[in-house]
TrEMBL record:
Residues 175-316 form the Tc1-like transposase DDE domain. Pfam families: DDE_3 (PF13358), HTH_32 (PF13565). This is IS630 family transposase. GO terms for molecular function: nucleic acid binding. InterPro entries: Homeodomain-like_sf, RNaseH-like_sf, RNaseH_sf, Tc1-like_DDE_dom, Transpos_IS630-like. It comes from Nocardia yunnanensis.
């Protein structure tokens, strides 16, 4: 049994399907047809393709009858689903609930426990894999819980609007600077991630005594240029903070500075406020519990990730040098900072003040 006569154009099309098709079934059937067109016997083709002779005969017969349509797989509907859409929605709703609220003695669902609860309550009798697929289709995924401190500032909207306006429309008469403290910088092995040989992670020592004290870092982010400036000091009192502000003032003489900072008591010290008034520096305070509005927090996260995580510095000088090296490299690649929280829910007019 052989396939009908194949034209040169059909042969080229079959060869293209056999080489480039991303559907394995279509590719295999095209190879069977090509081999039969070269007068290869059914037994040889079956042995070559590691399929049965009846399969080869069926492919040849279908191609003779239907042409290239016979190469396309005809997928059946599959096994009927055990659950309807209402049941699947109910399963997703149960998964989002705390098991204790439903009378179970644990606080987190596993796939096995969820499948058992569905079976006991006669909702559905499903395997763990089926439950996982239902949850995935329903947009329910396994995630870590996160903490959030909602702001209780009665002037939340006004303060946030002021900060966002400075981000979106920097004043032409000065610079917008984000200021904050980073630390404490203690000496300890810091866990981190990196590329290592399989099952051969880097090992860090464990420490129980740290006798060299801590240091603190004052940081300032210039939104116009994206440059990050810092000072590392042993203390973070108002005197150290004021000295840092004076260094910023000397860096941009003749320009008004708009300093965005949190409500740390040092920032509101009377001596600091008086100096700012006399030196064309405006302190723009964030709403309480809203440090996420300070753009410099992103830079501190990157500093921790790239300069400190995975390290084990034995002295403060060594650690300070690592921070300084990273900041210098970062400033060489910096650019203007724009587009803060574009599309975020905090931009909506109906954003609630005390709801995350």
């Amino acid at each position: 049994m052989f396939v009908r006569a194949v034209t040169p154009e059909e042969g080229r099309r079959l060869a293209q399907i056999a080489r480039r098709s991303k559907v394995p079934i279509r590719m295999r059937r095209a190879v069977v047809v090509m081999a039969s067109a070269q007068h290869q016997p059914v037994g040889f083709i079956a042995k070559l393709m590691q399929v049965s002779e009846s399969y080869v005969r069926q492919v040849i017969h279908d191609f003779n009858e239907k042409g290239f349509d016979a190469l396309d797989p005809k997928w059946s509907g599959g096994r009927p689903a055990k659950t309807d859409q209402a049941t699947r929605d109910r399963i997703c709703q149960i998964a989002r609930c705390c098991p204790r609220d439903l009378g179970w003695p644990f606080s987190t669902w596993s796939l096995s426990k969820l499948a058992e609860a569905l079976r006991i309550n006669k909702i559905a009798e499903l395997s763990r894999e089926t439950v996982r697929q239902i949850l995935k289709t329903g947009g329910v995924s396994w995630q870590a819980t996160k903490t959030w401190k909602a702001s209780n500032d009665p002037d939340f909207q006004a303060k946030m609007a002021r900060v966002l306006d400075l981000y979106d429309h920097p004043p032409v008469d000065g610079r917008v600077i984000c200021v904050d403290e980073f630390g404490p910088l203690n000496l300890q092995p810091r866990s981190g991630r990196g590329w290592f040989a399989a099952r051969r992670p880097r090992r860090l020592r464990a420490t129980y005594r740290r006798t060299q004290g801590v240091r603190h870092m004052f940081g300032a982010l210039d939104l116009r240029t994206g440059q990050l400036y810092y000072r590392i000091r042993d203390r973070k009192r108002w005197t150290e903070f004021l000295a840092f502000l004076k260094s910023l003032r000397a860096r941009w003489p003749g320009q008004k500075l708009y300093l965005i900072c949190d409500n740390y008591s040092v920032h509101k010290r009377a001596e600091v406020r008086a100096w700012c008034v006399d030196n064309a520096v405006e302190l723009v305070f964030l709403p309480t519990y809203s440090s996420w509005l300070n753009r410099i927090e992103c830079e501190f996260a990157a500093l921790r990730y790239f300069a400190l995580n995975g390290t084990d510095h034995r002295s403060h000088d060594e650690q300070d040098d690592a921070i300084g090296t990273y900041v210098r490299w970062r400033n060489q690649h910096a650019g203007p900072v724009r587009d803060f929280a574009v599309g975020s829910k905090i931009r909506r007019p109906d954003y609630l003040t005390n709801v995350a």
